Amino acid sequence: MVRVSVVGAHGRMGGNVVKAVEGAKDMELSVTVDAGDGLDAITPENTDVAVDFTVPSATLDNVLSLVSHGVSVVVGTTGWTDDKLDQVREAVGKHPGTSVFIAPNFAISAVLADYFSTIAAKYFESAEVIEMHHPNKVDAPSGTAIHTAKGIAEARREAGLGSIPDDTKSDGGSRGQLVDGVHVHAVRLRGLNAHEEVLFGNAGEQLVIRADSFDRSSFMPGVLLAVRKLSSGKYQGLTVGLNNFLDL
Amino acid sequence: MVRVSVVGAHGRMGGNVVKAVEGAKDMELSVTVDAGDGLDAITPENTDVAVDFTVPSATLDNVLSLVSHGVSVVVGTTGWTDDKLDQVREAVGKHPGTSVFIAPNFAISAVLADYFSTIAAKYFESAEVIEMHHPNKVDAPSGTAIHTAKGIAEARREAGLGSIPDDTKSDGGSRGQLVDGVHVHAVRLRGLNAHEEVLFGNAGEQLVIRADSFDRSSFMPGVLLAVRKLSSGKYQGLTVGLNNFLDL
Amino acid sequence: MVRVSVVGAHGRMGGNVVKAVEGAKDMELSVTVDAGDGLDAITPENTDVAVDFTVPSATLDNVLSLVSHGVSVVVGTTGWTDDKLDQVREAVGKHPGTSVFIAPNFAISAVLADYFSTIAAKYFESAEVIEMHHPNKVDAPSGTAIHTAKGIAEARREAGLGSIPDDTKSDGGSRGQLVDGVHVHAVRLRGLNAHEEVLFGNAGEQLVIRADSFDRSSFMPGVLLAVRKLSSGKYQGLTVGLNNFLDL
Amino acid sequence: MVRVSVVGAHGRMGGNVVKAVEGAKDMELSVTVDAGDGLDAITPENTDVAVDFTVPSATLDNVLSLVSHGVSVVVGTTGWTDDKLDQVREAVGKHPGTSVFIAPNFAISAVLADYFSTIAAKYFESAEVIEMHHPNKVDAPSGTAIHTAKGIAEARREAGLGSIPDDTKSDGGSRGQLVDGVHVHAVRLRGLNAHEEVLFGNAGEQLVIRADSFDRSSFMPGVLLAVRKLSSGKYQGLTVGLNNFLDL
């Protein structure tokens, strides 16, 4: 049995993680803490892997603290910068036996859409990204859409493709945001949750890859997969991105 | 038999009209002219309805000339302003028996999508418009998308709906162009022709209306319908929009 | 304040209705009953409108009992036949002042998709229906898809359209079920809830109308609308279909 | 310059190949033949690669004849069985220096959709295939859809996934055709050409992969790619499937 502790257990995502761990036959829920609780209750003696779904302002300190106590961590909180990731890498390096996994998106459909896009990008003249979310999201475009656009741009460069054809002379903003040469559009619509559609086009043909995350339950298989991977002891240091844990 | 003359017969759309008229059992092709030809060959004696698919800089003069000679006209050329439409209205008023029909879009799917959007708009909290075209189109968003967005905005006002919910704080341009309070996005992709998707959302539900025009043949049923309507003599003056000729 | 009682209050839909009524500013929750409780507690003295979300085997008796006691009813339970509807009509006719509303689908997106399909059907050579649901649904295709297909077929007949073109010689069942000459396909997929997509095609163009009901919350605006309509006293007798309460 | 001869040059696909070869800077058109012409004009002296787009009843003889004369062949004609493929393999084996490439689908979007489906299939509880074509197609479902469904089924078996969940008790044919345990649906709609949509679902999420082939021009990049690959001399014997020529 993998013993799992949850940081941010009273949050919406954390609460889903608690339920998912309780429902997993190969896991048992150990300690749950939330804002103000302190992390001292989570130790290597009672925890194989901690899961952090808190807030961008707290997650770095949480991870550094847990790692310094010898606990591996799966992180679903967003807001990571290169500098912060470096701090985690350094901390994990000092504590052999610990490992940290950070993913911007735990939905398998989204991770696959992102991965497939990097492959398809090489074979198409045109590519654009449309992400769609509920209207309470404060940032646009989504981090996932930016990641997808950058992956497409990199694949195009490697394949020697030039810039994407576009004769638009005036657009009033309708052509969206250019991310590394790829147009990205963000839709906000009541009823939606988190969705991404990637369009590729050649003369006479189109390829569309779409990932729909209808609710938070879609992230749980990815979280549990990450917990199992870290608890296996096969992964050392810092791993970023669920694609590393899929057999791609 | 309805006798049809075509202005701009050598253009891509005009060429399609020539073929469509030749293929229609109730029509016969009369005169075809193109840039530089002059319009004198088209007279009430040989033409029931003329069809103009030329360029924005020529179409107003074409229509005024044809009407002054007593010939009714179906116009598919774009670029019409309120002022130009007024000139046509005035000219038609002076020549009883003539009528003019101008449509920004002859595809029945697009006309219905536009019409359905004005109905649906009253019942949903959110609405956005995405139009998709080939990358050689120079303007964005399409005139059809702007028309749809304005129709949605007007229907929302009449229904007493407030502004569309959107908590976005920063978007880098990804949220597209605001047309009368409705976000409009324009995609340009090789392989596509002319497409529009309208999204409506309430808590827990979404309605999507999508019109695809895969090639120019999609406009011909609408053109022939307009020719038949004008030749029937039932329509006087200037009519704008194919929706007026559908039984909606 | 409209006083609302709920029959089947412990069921999943009934529970949602209880919450929706409690959340509506112009309504107050009166009596809630469930299987085994009997309906005597619901009277005209404490209830303006009762809402029944029970099971097909119970709903007719519930409605007849409530009406006989002078209570109007909004019914979301499925399984209604013409014969059962006639019994309700007769009962309501004997108890002036009562009215009954029965809807096969309370999602506004689904009702509009169905309505738009009857309009579009007249203008397209081809039409097909695809419904998509979660894999625990036991019947296929959905009642909504059958209703949509029949509406399309009727509109085509009225418009004098012949049969839908189809040169298929062998299909191994892949062409789906013919409902009144319209092909209907049913998809069952984990993660989906209740969705319908209607495709219309002419040479060179396509119109797609899609309704997505992501969860039960999508039905509540329709239920509350029906409650308000019945409580207004403007509707007499039996009304079937939410389209009657929309301004279409 | 790669010298290309075309068999079936007057057919619709063959005519497109002729144009595509003429438009390719690294190719020159050599001999074109059609039904009744015989193949003797095509020799290793004037042809590096022949392209066959004829009919199922003629293509095997064409390929065997060309190979026996020492000419490599790219084949786009359908109707190949295991037995026929074996005959080609045997013939190519007897004529060193020749190679044959046969593809059921030359559209890159379709080939990628098929390939991505085999990867995604391992990670989802549910999967279904919907193919959509013009109504003049006589067989259903398409060979591509069958291939995709079989690939999904095989990937699920390898991943140890059980059968796809489906509680349907009665469906009147709406659930489509079972291909190796995967439901396949075929839509026929005027205005469409050749399209495939593959749906994958887990609790709370969906992945959709869609390939649209709007017209025959979509096949030409794949045909030219195959011609280049065979002319490179790197491929020996019989190769089946464009995926072998993509860098996947």
UniProtKB/TrEMBL annotation, chains A, B, C, D:
Domain Dihydrodipicolinate reductase C-terminal: 113-246
Compartments it resides in: Cytoplasm
Reactions it catalyzes: (S)-2,3,4,5-tetrahydrodipicolinate + NAD(+) + H2O = (2S,4S)-4-hydroxy-2,3,4,5-tetrahydrodipicolinate + NADH + H(+); (S)-2,3,4,5-tetrahydrodipicolinate + NADP(+) + H2O = (2S,4S)-4-hydroxy-2,3,4,5-tetrahydrodipicolinate + NADPH + H(+)
Entry binding sites for NAD(+): G8, A9, H10, G11, R12, M13, D37, G76, T77, T78, A103, P104, N105, F106
EC number(s) on file: 1.17.1.8
Root EC class: oxidoreductase
PROSITE patterns listed in its UniProt record: DAPB
GO molecular function: 4-hydroxy-tetrahydrodipicolinate reductase; NAD binding; NADP binding; oxidoreductase activity, acting on CH or CH2 groups, NAD or NADP as acceptor
Gene Ontology cellular component terms for the protein in this record: cytosol
One Pfam short name: DapB_N
Binding-site residues, (S)-2,3,4,5-tetrahydrodipicolinate: H134, G143, T144
Biological-process GO terms, alphabetical: diaminopimelate biosynthetic process; lysine biosynthetic process via diaminopimelate
Functional pathway: Amino-acid biosynthesis; L-lysine biosynthesis via DAP pathway; (S)-tetrahydrodipicolinate from L-aspartate: step 4/4
UniProt cross-references to CDD domains, sorted A to Z: DHDPR_N (cd02274)
InterPro entries: DapB_C, DapB_N, DapB_N_CS, DHDPR_bac, NAD(P)-bd_dom_sf
SUPFAM superfamilies: Glyceraldehyde-3-phosphate dehydrogenase-like, C-terminal domain, NAD(P)-binding Rossmann-fold domains
Domain of life: Bacteria
PANTHER family: 4-HYDROXY-TETRAHYDRODIPICOLINATE REDUCTASE 1, CHLOROPLASTIC-RELATED, DIHYDRODIPICOLINATE REDUCTASE
HAMAP family for this protein: DapB (MF_00102)
UniProt family annotation: Belongs to the DapB family.
Protein name per the record: 4-hydroxy-tetrahydrodipicolinate reductase
Source species: Bifidobacterium psychraerophilum
